[in-house]
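Every protein is a chain of amino acids, and every chain bends into a shape of its own. The fold becomes a row of whole numbers, each drawn from a learned catalogue of backbone shapes. The protein below has been through that process, and both of its lines are reproduced in full.
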Amino acid sequence: QVQVAESGGGLVQPGGSLRLSCAASGTTFSISVMAWHRQVPGKQRELVAFITAGGRTEYVDAVKGRFTISRDNAKSMMWLQMNNLKPEDTAVYYCNANGASGAWGQGTQVTVSS
């Protein structure tokens, strides 16, 4: 089994940056795709970005050019570098390993506000 845990959320002003981290543990050799999702109260959780074991990445249009997803398989770590943050990026961000039926973290709050 795989477990994941996020860290790095917080309060930032519009235009600022944050870096989220996700640490995986357990049977990490079984991890293929890792992803970041986010959720705003009252709305469905949405995929922000994913990265395959081989390093292929995809982003939702709203964050392209501003967010960068990366991972280190040897360290069982994943990151989300978020630049030029906007108020609409405010959400709880979740780390996920191996898709919807895989492992989910508890979430970390990101608030973008002046």
About this structure: The mean pLDDT is 96.
